[in-house]
Amino acid sequence: MRNKLVKLFGLATALTAVLSLSACGTTETASDDFGPKHKLVIQVNSKDALTQKIALNNAVNIQKAYGVDNVDVEIVAYGPGLSMLTPKNKKQAARVKSLAVQGITFSACGNTIKKLTKKAGKAPKLIAGVQVVPAGVKRIIELQEQNYSYVKP
């Protein structure tokens, strides 16, 4: 009788372990079903038109590769790169507007805006759909802490 109880207890313990492992795997799979499977942050800190164009191309290409619903893309601009998010930059302005509608997030550095405002006496105008974050580098760090991959063209 004692041997049967020991075997039964051992079987119950093994079954509990298997079910626990199974539940862990199920939880991970279930969480993968919510939200995008891929996340990308692109840094732009250059006023160079080619660098800015490459950043936008990277964003578009990654959406094409994974599908719009399977990837979150955020472009963070600061310093001279902020010019990319202003209407004065005619080369990029129409494209930024269009991509914002297609689900790409554009973030402008609040520190850069403060500095430009102090220098010019007024805040730079941003393209519709651009969000302002307190600090561009801080935003990039926060996104990387959320498992965003990082690209700087």
Structural features, described:
There is one protein chain. The protein has 153 residues and is of the alpha/beta class. 54% of the residues lie in helices and 17% in strands. The chain has 5 helices and 5 strands; from the N terminus they run αβαβαβαβαβ. Strands 4-3-2-1-5 form a 5-stranded parallel β-sheet, with helices on both faces. Helix 2 packs parallel to helix 3. The longest helix has 31 residues. It is globular. The N and C termini lie far apart (72 Å). About 16% of the residues have low confidence.
Query: What is the alpha-carbon Rg in Å?
Result: 24 Å
What's the N-to-C terminus distance?
Answer: 72 Å
Helical percent range? 40-55%
**For the report, how would you describe the main beta sheet?**
5 strands, parallel
Q: List the helices and strands in order.
A: HEHEHEHEHE
Number of helices: 5
Number of DSSP-assigned strands: 5
Please, what is the average pLDDT?
A: 85
Apparent shape:
globular
Ranges where pLDDT stays below 50 over 5 or more residues in a row are 8-31
- Quickly give the structural class: alpha/beta
Strand content: 15-25%
Sheet with most strands: strand arrangement: 4-3-2-1-5
Question: What's the topology here?
Answer:
Elements (H helix, E strand, L loop, with lengths): L1 H31 L5 E7 L4 H18 L4 E7 L12 H12 L3 E5 H11 L9 E4 L2 H10 L3 E3 L2
Parallel strand pairs: 1-2, 1-5, 2-3, 3-4
Helix pairs in contact: 2-3
Notable features of this structure?
single chain; 153 residues; alpha/beta; 5-stranded parallel β-sheet; 5 helices; 54% helix
